[in-house]
Amino acid sequence: MRAFKRLLDRSLTAQAVLIFPLLLGFTALFRRHENPVWWVVQAALCTAISIGFLAAQRRRVGRVTGTDPRGIAELNRKLRHGEVPKAPEERATMRRLIDAELGRVERGGRWLPYWLGFMGLIAIGTLALGVSAGAWIIPLVLAVAVVGFCWSLLWARRRFIDRCHHMRSALQS
C-alpha cells in the first residue's frame, strides 16, 4: 500500500490511470441512458482537465520551492510524518514549501465562512424541501452527511495548519 501511495504521490500518469476509471464509473452510473462512447469521452475530458490542474499546481509549487515533483512529494511525506530534514538545503526548501502552503491555506480561509454558509444552506434547504414533500429520512441523512463533510474538511485543515506550524518551529530551532 505504501508503494501505491508513493506512486500516486509522484506520478501524474498513475493519478490519471486511477481517475479515469472512477470518472467513467460515475458517468455510467448517472447517465445510464446515454451512449457508452459519451461516457468514455466525458471521463477522458474530465481526467485531462483534472490532470492539467494538478500539473499546474505542481509546477507552481516547484517554482516556489525550487525543486522537482519527486522532491516535493518527499518533503510532503516528511511533513506528514513530522520528520525534520537534516541537510541545510533541504531545510531551506522545506521552509519555502511550508510558507507557500500556509499562505495558500490562509488565502483560502478568507472564503471559508462563505463556503460553509453555502453548504449549510444546501443542508437546510434539502431538509426543508424533504420535510415539505413528506419524506424526511433521506434529506436528514443528506443534511447530516453535508455537516459531517464540512466538519471533516475543517478538521483536516486545522490538522494541516498545526503540522505546518510545528514543522516551522522545528526548522527554526
Structure description:
- The structure is a single chain.
- This protein is mainly α.
- The chain is built from seven helices and no strands.
- It starts with a helix and ends with a helix.
How are the SSEs placed, and which strands pair?
Blueprint: H1 2-10, H2 12-30, H3 36-65, H4 69-81, H5 88-109, H6 112-133, H7 137-172
Helix pairs in contact: 1-2, 2-3, 5-7, 6-7
Name a few traits of the molecule.
single chain, 173 residues, 7 helices, mainly alpha
Tell me the series of helices and strands, N- to C-terminal: HHHHHHH
What's the multimeric state?
single chain
The chain-level mean pLDDT equals 90
Q: Compute the gyration radius: what is it? A: 21 Å
Unreliable stretches covering 5 or more consecutive residues:
none
The number of helical elements comes to 7
| Principal-axis shape | globular
Distance between the termini: 34 Å
- Helix proportion: over 70%
Write down how many β-strands occur, each being a DSSP E stretch of 2 or more residues.
0
Largest sheet: none
What percentage of amino acids are in beta strands?
under 5%
Secondary structural class: mainly alpha
Short recap of the structure:
The chain is mainly α and 173 residues long.
